[in-house]
């Protein structure tokens, strides 16, 4: 640390963490990185470099690079002189990391959030979701139309009561 690059105080690191956490998800812009639990950490190095750790919802998530660029841009606009964004895959992201606020935002946007803890399956088996609650009318009288929704982390469902199709976040 030199006189020209003093280490920001802890309050500044907290402020920068809030800035990074407020970045919207590019595929579901009503939720933030904090809402989804994607932002795993932020530290300020002695030289002032802001080091951010992200865990994508899927290993091959197509939005990972966009999210990293959006975080870097937001932090630079907030005054960070240098930003390094690292993607970590372990531990793997889980829908358990979605906050209650994030679940509410998904529901209000018309996406069924996963309920509670993800499914637990024995090794060599596939977990089965019996029903997703319709985010429009609240019915459990729904059916999965396709395991593949508008993004890799969602499946396409339909409500048998209100007739509306909706995305459902896959529980992981």
UniProtKB/TrEMBL annotation:
Pfam (any one): Zn_ribbon_PaaD
Ranges where the MIP18 family-like domain occurs: 22-80
The organism's place on the tree of life at top rank: Bacteria
All copies of domain PaaD zinc beta ribbon, residue ranges: 129-170
Protein name: Phenylacetate-CoA oxygenase
Species, as recorded: Actinotalea ferrariae CF5-4
Lineage: Bacteria, Bacillati, Actinomycetota, Actinomycetes, Micrococcales
